[in-house]
Q: What sequence folds into this?
């Protein structure tokens, strides 16, 4: 059951008058600081994608690593996890900071 004031509290008028934005959430009010943090996050995403893709292609396609299967699987799992983390968490934060 919804409360009687549900529509008045959650109307689009109240949502646009919200004083919080990405600038206040991240506490980055000045543009140079925001763009510096955004560039840093984008650099982290780019280096993660390039590095993790290189590791996965080298280990899966070219069999470049000569080590035990267990260690190789752990390295591949770490690369996949880092790739997912970079795309799912760091990239949205970077875009939110810049916006």
A:
């Amino acid at each position: 059951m919804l409360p009687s004031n549900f529509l008045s509290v959650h109307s689009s008028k109240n949502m646009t008058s919200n004083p919080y934005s990405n600038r206040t959430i991240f506490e980055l009010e000045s543009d140079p600081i925001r763009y510096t943090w955004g560039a840093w996050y984008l650099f982290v995403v780019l280096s993660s994608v390039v590095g993790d893709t290189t590791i996965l292609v080298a280990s899966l396609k070219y069999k470049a690593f000569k080590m035990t299967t267990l260690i190789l699987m752990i390295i591949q799992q770490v690369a996949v996890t880092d790739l997912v983390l970079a795309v799912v968490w760091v990239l949205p934060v970077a875009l939110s900071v810049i916006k």
